């Protein structure tokens, strides 16, 4: 007889392997009980992380190996090659990194952008953090600046990274939701970890919905250390600022764009480079002398904090240009391996506990994902600097070593490769560390709300509206009431009005009074309303036409927009071409019903009675204009084209007269009542509105949701 203590069939075997965490203690894989899993073992409260912390090592190792072959996080990516060139050599006083200090040196780069939560098959436009990882192929070796489009992170200590990602990933019982954070496990983690609040403010803002990778900031997140030729250290924060400005989509757009084009951001990056509209970013640094380390009201080692630009300005260093698409997505974009510990002389680490864990974790990840220790031999990972060492064999070894000795010291290979001595070697920054071996977070990391409040105070009115709506949407998906209540309680420490507004939208009793007084400080640099608004380069403009349109007017619109760097696209009720008024044809780029307004930055309706009548009779065309208007985009029409705007419910349509041929109101540009020709300043006024990205003062309350 089979003992009931042993499973006797496959179903019972599955039951036997199920693990219910109820009424158990947290242990290691070896069954050793653990009493602390929120802080890694360090030398003192602010010292480096110790390798002997076996629980930290095991926890991160298991997390790194949980999914194969795609990345556990940042699985869905897009990349491109380019170069970086510094403006001047002023940074040589602070760092020995030649690629940052020699204005004559162009350093090749590969940049990979990505979402974080979803799998390779998820959508581009989900609400999520975006990765911004840059590999510099410098003459001194490869340097990887592995950052995000937000300057802070969810947690302070890397030992919590597996917990955070487990919480934000699709829930384990259903595998839902994919590429989204609106679910119970993520918000349960948040309501129990107040250190997440600053990052959650960023995630609920429009920063989580970038218009394109080309219009997205990047940050190194951590405080790093520059080291100059004399060995003097300086704290540094890295910033990427897009030359086109920092701009976002709106939430309704992202959901519709995901259905129309799930590769919206990836395709945008590819096509703009292919068209020669090379994306550019300026690299800037915030420098803090080591003597000022403790002058701030936050800890420089805390990755949930920023250094406000008003306190320490961002100083421009040089420009990044992406000018070449990969030849093979798998071989390059998929196989590229980044590592925060890939540094060159002149750049070093700090004791930031999140950074320390990342320095340990990335190599572990590459081993499982790329099949062995020789992933640096892959062309996309290979340095341009000479490589010579005693590392041999292993999976995918491609170097053919001819030397007899594979050890140091040796006499059989002439002692080579020899130690470099003083020839541009990397030396770790020397600092004194002392303290008890302890798993405890520094008290200087304890303020979890002040910078979340700073972010909230810095937002424009429309940004605040979007943040409230985002919290309501996300928490509206949370089934457990106590989780929603817990988040509102934390928000009440950020700002009372914010907490009340969110509570009212999710069925939670609003807090009666503020848990903390709003300190009133703000940082204007945090608001996208203060971003670059002086260019329409690469902006996609839909030009709606039908049979009978004025071909000359369409050509004039296209030419004047193209001269300003925009990308006009002619859309119509059918593909191929349409019959122009009189004679000739107008080439059509796409049928209106195969695209949507959410894929464009603005819309123009040229005049011509026959063309406008056909468009006005087509529900999809009318909806195209209505939706663009509802999403606060620039809308324009000339002559009879105004009728389509009125049919679409557009407010702000004002008729011109002899004294004013072009009128702009609430971002609606119209030219009517003239002699039939397109006024000279029509496109000029339209371009001015388009450069502002959106028209947030527009009242769209009459447009149905």
Relative helix content: 25-40%
Using the alpha-carbon principal axes, give the shape: globular
Largest sheet: 10 strands, antiparallel
- As a percent range, the share of strand residues is 15-25%
**Count of helical segments?**
18
Rg computed from alpha carbons, rounded to a whole number of angstroms: 28 Å
Question: Which stretches are poorly predicted, pLDDT < 50 over at least 5 residues?
Answer: 1-18
CATH H-level homologous superfamily name of the largest domain: Catalase core domain
N→C terminal distance: 67 Å
CATH third-level topology of the largest domain: Catalase HpII,  Chain A, domain 1
Structural class, judged by helices and strands? alpha+beta
The CATH class name of the largest domain reads Mainly Beta
Q: Compute the number of structural domains.
A: 3
Name given to the CATH architecture of the largest domain: Beta Barrel
Give the rounded overall mean pLDDT. Answer: 91
* Number of strand segments: 21
Q: What does this 3D model show about the protein?
A:
It is a single chain. The strands form four sheets. Strands 2, 3, 4, 5, 6, 7, 8, 9, 10 and 11 form a ten-stranded antiparallel β-sheet that branches. The protein has a seven-stranded mixed β-sheet with strand order 17-14-13-18-19-21-20, sandwiched between helices. The chain has three domains: 42-377, Beta Barrel (Catalase HpII,  Chain A, domain 1), CATH 2.40.180; 449-530, Catalase, four-helical domain (Hemocyanin, N-terminal domain, Up-down Bundle); 540-691, Class I glutamine amidotransferase (GATase) domain (Rossmann fold). The longest helix has 18 residues, at 353-370. It has helices at 10-17, 54-64, 161-168, 184-192, 197-203, 251-260, 264-274, 329-334, 353-370, 450-458, 461-476, 481-494, 496-506, 551-563, 609-616, 619-630, 642-647, 682-691, and strands spanning 42-43, 77-86, 107-115, 130-138, 141-148, 218-219, 224-227, 233-242, 280-289, 315-324, 347-348, 437-438, 540-544, 567-572, 577-579, 585-587, 590-591, 602-605, 635-638, 662-665, 668-671. The model is unreliable at 1-18 (pLDDT under 50). It contains 18 helices and 21 strands. The protein is globular and about 90 Å long. The termini are far apart. The protein is of the alpha+beta class.
């Amino acid at each position: 007889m089979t003992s009931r203590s042993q499973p006797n069939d496959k179903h019972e075997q599955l039951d036997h392997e199920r693990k219910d965490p109820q009424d158990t203690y947290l242990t290691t894989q070896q069954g050793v009980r653990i009493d602390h899993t929120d802080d890694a073992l360090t030398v003192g409260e602010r010292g480096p992380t110790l390798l002997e912390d076996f629980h930290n090592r095991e926890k991160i190792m298991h997390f790194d190996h949980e999914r194969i072959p795609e990345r556990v996080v940042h699985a869905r990516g897009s990349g491109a090659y380019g170069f970086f060139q510094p403006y001047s050599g002023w940074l040589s006083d602070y760092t020995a990194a030649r690629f940052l200090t020699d204005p004559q040196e162009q350093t090749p780069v590969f940049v990979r952008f990505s979402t974080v939560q979803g799998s390779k098959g998820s959508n581009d436009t989900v609400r999520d953090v975006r990765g911004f990882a840059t590999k510099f192929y410098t003459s001194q070796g490869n340097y990887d600046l592995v950052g995000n489009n937000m300057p802070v992170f969810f947690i302070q200590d890397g030992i919590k990274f597996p917990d955070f990602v487990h919480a934000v990933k699709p829930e384990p019982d259903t595998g839902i939701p994919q590429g989204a954070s609106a679910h119970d496990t993520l918000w349960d983690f948040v309501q129990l970890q107040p250190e997440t609040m600053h990052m959650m403010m960023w995630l609920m803002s429009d920063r989580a919905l970038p218009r394109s990778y080309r219009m997205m900031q990047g940050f190194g997140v951590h405080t790093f250390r520059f080291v100059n030729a004399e060995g003097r250290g300086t704290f540094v924060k890295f910033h990427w600022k897009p030359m086109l400005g920092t701009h976002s989509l709106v939430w309704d757009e992202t959901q519709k764009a995901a259905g129309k084009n799930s590769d919206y951001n990836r395709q945008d990056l590819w096509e703009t480079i292919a068209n020669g509209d090379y994306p550019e970013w300026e690299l800037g640094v915030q420098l803090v002398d080591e003597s000022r380390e403790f002058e701030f009201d936050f800890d420089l080692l805390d990755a949930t904090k920023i250094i406000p630009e008003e306190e320490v300005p961002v100083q421009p260093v040089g420009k990044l240009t992406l000018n070449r698409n990969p030849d093979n997505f798998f071989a390059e974009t998929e196989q590229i391996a980044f590592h925060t510990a890939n540094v060159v002389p002149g750049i070093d680490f700090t004791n930031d506990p999140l950074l320390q864990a990342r320095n340990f974790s990335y190599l572990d990840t590459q081993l499982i994902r790329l099949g062995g220790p020789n992933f640096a031999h892959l062309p996309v990972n290979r340095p341009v600097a000479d490589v010579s060492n005693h590392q041999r064999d292993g999976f995918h070894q491609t170097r053919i070593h001819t030397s007899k000795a594979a050890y140091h010291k040796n006499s059989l290979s002439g002692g080579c490769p020899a130690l470099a001595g003083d020839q541009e070697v990397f030396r770790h920054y020397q600092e004194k560390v002392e303290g008890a071996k302890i798993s405890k977070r520094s008290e200087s990391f304890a303020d979890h709300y002040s910078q979340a409040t700073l972010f909230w105070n810095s937002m424009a009115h429309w940004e605040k509206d979007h943040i409230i709506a985002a919290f309501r949407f996300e928490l509206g998906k949370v089934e457990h009431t106590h989780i929603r209540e817990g988040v509102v309680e934390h928000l009440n420490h950020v700002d009372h009005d914010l907490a009340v507004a969110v509570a009212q939208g999710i069925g939670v009793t609003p807090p009666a009074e503020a848990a903390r007084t709003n300190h009133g400080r703000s940082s204007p640099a945090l608001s996208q309303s203060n971003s670059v608004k002086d260019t329409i380069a690469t902006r996609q403009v839909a030009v709606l036409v039908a049979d009978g349109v004025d071909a000359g007017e369409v050509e004039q619109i296209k030419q004047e927009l193209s001269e300003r760097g925009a990308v006009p696209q002619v859309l119509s009720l059918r593909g191929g071409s349409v019959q122009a008024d009189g004679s000739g044809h107008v080439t059509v780029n796409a049928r209106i019903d195969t695209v949507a307004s959410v894929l464009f930055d603005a819309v123009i309706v040229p005049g011509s009675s026959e063309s406008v009548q056909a468009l006005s009779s087509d529900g999809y065309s009318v909806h195209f204009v209505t939706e663009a208007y509802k999403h606060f985009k620039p809308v324009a029409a000339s002559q009879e084209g105004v009728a389509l705007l009125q049919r679409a419910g557009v407010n702000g349509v004002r008729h011109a007269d002899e004294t004013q041929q072009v009128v702009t109101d609430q971002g609606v540009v119209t030219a009517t009542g003239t002699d039939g020709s397109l006024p000279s300043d029509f496109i000029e006024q339209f371009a001015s509105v388009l450069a502002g990205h959106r028209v947030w003062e527009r009242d769209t309350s009459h447009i149905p949701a």
